[in-house]
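Handout, section 4.2: multi-component inputs.
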Amino acid sequence: MKFSYAWLQELLPDLQQTPEQLAELLTLHSFETVAHKSQGADTILEADIASNRADCLSHVGLAFEIAALLNLKVHEPVVSDSSFAEYAQGEWKITIPNRRHMTRYMGAFLQNITLQPAPEWMRQRLETVGIRSINGLVDITNYVMVELGNPNHAFDAAKLPGTHMSVRGGKKGEKLFTLDGIERQLTAKTLVITSNDVPVDIAGVMGGQSSEVSENTKEIFLFVGCFNPYSIQKTAASLGMNTESSTRFSKGVDPNLAEKAMRRLLVLLHEILGAQLVQVIDTYPKPVMPRTITFHPKRVSKVAGIDIPMEKVQDIFQRLTFTVDTNRRHSWSVTVPTKRADLIGEHDLIEEALRVVGYNTIPPQVPHVPLRAQRVFDALQWQELLRDMLVDAGATEVYSYVYEDERFTKLLGLETIPHLELINPVAPELKQLRVSLLPGLLKSVEKNMSEWKQQMVFELGHVFYPRAETETSQFADKRVPGVTEELRLTAVMVGYKDQFRTIKGLVEQIAERLGLSDVEFQTQEGQGSSFYEHSAAITVGSHMLGTLGIVSSRVTQSLKTKEIAVFDLNADALSQLAQETYQFQPLPKFPPVYRDLAILVDPEKTVAQVQNVIERIGGDLVYDVDLFDIYEPAPSEATTTKQKSLAFHLKFQAPDRTLTSDEVDTLVQRIVQGLRDEVGAQVR
Amino acid sequence: MTASDTDLVALHNEAQQRLKDVTSLPHLEEWRKQYLSRKGQVPQLLRTIKDIADPGERQKQGQAANRLREDLMRLYLAHKSHIEQTQRTSHFDITVPGKRPIGGHLHPLTIFQRRIRDIFSSMGFVMVEGPLIDEPRYNFDALNIPLDHPARGEADTFYLTNGLLLRTHTSAMQVRAVLENNLTPPFRLLIPGLVFRNERTDATHETLFFQVEGIMIGKDITVGNFRSVVESFYEALFMKKVESRLRPQYFPFVEPGFEVDLRCVFCDGKGCRVCKQTGWIEVMGAGMVHPVVLKNMNINPKQWQGFAFGGSIDRLAMLHYGIQDIRLFWSGDLRFLTQFV
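Output:
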């Protein structure tokens, strides 16, 4: 909000500070303020007034704040001292049917107006704070709003439908042309001022065109009131309008300010336009009284951490125009003015004392606290380990939006999975929350494709599902009713050789490092794998850990990429099942014996089948089986045999003796025989 | 011909001088033949010594000539090993590019968050994480944010069709963390994580970003303690002395509430582009935890007090790494991501 420095100088005759000094003072003690030159000799102070300091939304309000900080006196503007009781009678009537809408409604009927432009000094001040001069009447009402903080409105009394003024919510179908010439559709959320039940003004926001003052105006009905802040917020939001008036009402105007504003208006309207007061009405069903707060002055020092003398606190409170009763020894009774509706409890008063003293007078003090060791391995540390493992393997970490791009939802066939939805998304195609990290990763791959022929990217991030009553996953975050939040670790590889084995090896390495010993891979078909061409389900014991595989060619063709390999793991399960399991094994006492074995099998025979035979027949003496070569002729290749070739390094070792060559050769013979019988293998 | 002192010195100088010009092994061999081989000049000289008549003179000359031969032999061997060394290494090209182990890249925000966590861990803050989708009561009500607060509007907050919301700040986890873990003071927690704001994106605004929240409650945790903790955090983060400044600011869940500025760590407060010539950079919001919030944590505000703070990690990381556009963090662009190791 903009303030005129010259105007503040008039309200604070003893003010010595330059605009820049004043801005610095307010920034450090009240709210962020900057000084900048305006046209002419004046300087503008622009203050970012926090929503709890509605008392400073006027020049007099800010002058009182500055006066408290600098211990100055405020020279308040002249107000009318007429006895309102003498003007109580008349034909005008005000009602407030719903007290939740308004706390106070003051109205006055004035006659004998000779409309002429406002004086130069007044127009100059309005212009400095950014308000355009309209005519003498409107300028005076705006001037008093900027001076005292109470928005008000002058209706051309002759144009109002009647003399019964009231306030209510809009009705469906009602319309009102506002002063800016726009026709507004009213709803129940829109609060309106009515005249004989006809809407004539959007309450607290903008007047209506039908009762707008003009050069012909002779009589006005002057409105000065106080609305409930929430009802004006809703009204302004319902129409998408923000005005000087609605900004002030939304933050809260002191109901006890209305009378002062009315008296100030009467002085200016009379002096400048010759207006005569005929009737004044004050509808204030439940006057707001000053609040008294019990306050323990020692607590100021306790919160700050330095000693702040009680006398100093008392002085600050008095400068802030609080009434302090220090009769009791340990606690005071502090009565705060109604303009400070933000001050509710002792903590608020502590803040008042400390901010005036200045937070920066409190030096840093190292806290003294109990010391306790923390557990070393928690879920967070396992998660960081997972990231490190992927980076070590050559993958780059991506962060992507939690909003799932509809294009990828469709491409990957994720529509069948229930999604959570936003009411107000950033874009219509981003309204669903992601159920998989794959869309984000593939989007990244697609974007990078032109420059990066090989890509390996991963993300460790949350996915979201609506929670079904029957949900059984024991790892996901189910703290919030209706939602399952699950941390997933998903990686994507494009353009590498032997991608399936590489990505599977990575999963095996992760499992090993996390101490998960019984990880199994099972061929997966049908549901849940719609975006895969070939895939395996990964389990640990009875827990589903995730999937891995090759993405379907339909997806790769659509993205115009080469083959994509993926793993998608439940990172909540990983980090909760993980355990540090290093256990020393005594070193073998007898040397190993190595043999190589190369065989040909039919293509439908799996490596696992072959390995099972080797391990079963070899028994405990087979220490390690290492597949070092695999060759599968492509269907198009014109070879005599369509068989695939597998080659293994076999390592034999016994814990209690040195194996002899003969013994190992005999065992290999039995293995070869077994392979021939069970999987039809031929030794090459 | 008999040797004289001057002959010996002249021969020594000549041989040494000529050795300097020898750069290859064949040349060295020629040099050796000329001076040290059986028919070389030094042995020839030695053979003339026996002809010296005076025994004293003969002995003296003999010793000098032997010293000369040993000197030249030593020079010869040293020069030989020097030439061999040079030849071995001269065709080894050390300018070939190094072959690096295959390695990927952590996201810059992961790297930066680890630094932040490590620093707070070292001060005994315990990490907790909260749900990203939360209930309005934790995001707003428990934090003393009234129904009519503008932050609750759809213009700032993403709401779900089921009445829940994407949390707008990590403060949503303050009360939840204490209640879920049955925490009783004294304690200090660090809550890092994603938060969401429904706003138009540009170079400095995103609809999602990381925040770090801290809360420390004890018998007598003060504003002075807060200044100490934040200053030591930023000193560890920027690895230089910092100076904080607190300005009054209104957050419903703290009282007093302040905005924390640091004297600009890039220009030491002299004024630069980063601090927009003000000498200060705004780094977080903070304050003393509001008694209503303490009550919502089942903590008696008459007995316990403390501070809470929250700030954007992304903004700090942008300052720290010199990143100009916040949207790059979410771009998945490898040209950006591979700049961080």
